[in-house]
Amino acid sequence: MKSIFARTIKTALVAPALAFALATPVLAAEAAAPAKPDLAKGQATAMVCAACHAADGTRGIPTNPILQGQHAEYLVKQLTEFKAGKRQNPIMQGMAASLSEEDMRNVAAFYASKQAEAGAAADKDLVLLGEKIYRGGLADRNIPACAGCHSPSGAGIPAQYPRLAGQHTDYTMSQLNAFRAGTRGNSVQMTGVAAKMSDREIKAVADYVAGLH
Asked: What's the Cα-to-Cα distance from 184 to each of 13, 81, 190, rounded to whole Å?
């Protein structure tokens, strides 16, 4: 009788402890999960960016990127790398320096929530070359198809590869040239691709993606 009573007490003590131990990882994971982005706060931060990117990241200055409809994860990655100095740009490094992780998530979510507007290719003589490289690459130089990472429609993949569809030709050209020159060094893959491309090929791809939608 005494041993049955002892076992009952032990079970009563162990069961709650076991249940708590099993629940702890779940509770810890929930506590570690970042808060849902605040679009209102993101919009407030975006007002500081409006001079270069327009109020909602739409089709502003051609030498600056269109942020409207860009993947939030990708934008956070770029802001983080500007802040850390991994991606070089005096203006953007200064802007990112004062942003917290929460600020970055909020403003990135704000831009991502906007419907991206369609663009258009301007150089008809280069459209076919741009399409050839984007969709099929250049086998003779082991240049892969851009569509393999950025998708046939230019939609990209969150966090890893940006949306290119509709992006300004001038901006895309400047980034490909920066990768080729080694002045933008936050993507080994893109540095390797751009290093094999001529000026004409870079212009062709940049103009082609401007018209993707």
From this structure: 60, 11, 9
